[in-house]
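TL;DR need structure tokens for one chain.
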Amino acid sequence: MKTNKLDIKNFICIASVGKPRGLKGEFFLNSFCYPKDNILEYSKFYIQDNKIPDFKIEYIKKINSKFCAKVKNINDIDNIKNLTNLNIYIDKQELPKLKNKEAYWFELTNMEVIDKDSGDILGIVSSLNNYGAQDCLEVKPTDNSVDKSKRLIPYIKDEFIESIERDKNIIYVNWDKTF
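>> reply
TL;DR here they are.
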């Protein structure tokens, strides 16, 4: 039987299947949520490539600083090994609603970046990266940009990130265009 692949544009990856734990089908769950405990707030999950069409996590429990989980109807180590390193998704609609001036990381991609003081368009967010000290917006120029320079803008609210207007798809920044 061929399974239908998951169309991930309406889903967000929040975890992955880690190494097996024990012999009864349990596994370590790698949470990508922030804070990591937010993984416990969700109940309807989807597995990468829809490997299990009726994918249900029976339980998730916290053991010290790690999470352990079990997939319904998988009761041995051999079957859970086949899922190791696969991503686990939720529907974006299940994420908690945010205030207008807040945004999820995935929503920042393709937002227009404008310098608050000068009104110059610096480009659009092409990706978000963490280089150790803090997260950075990678901003690539567009036809409407003030110049053709790529920029890395640290995601530090009230210092470099002035405000986010999700309804307008704009991020206002305090950023000197010569940087």
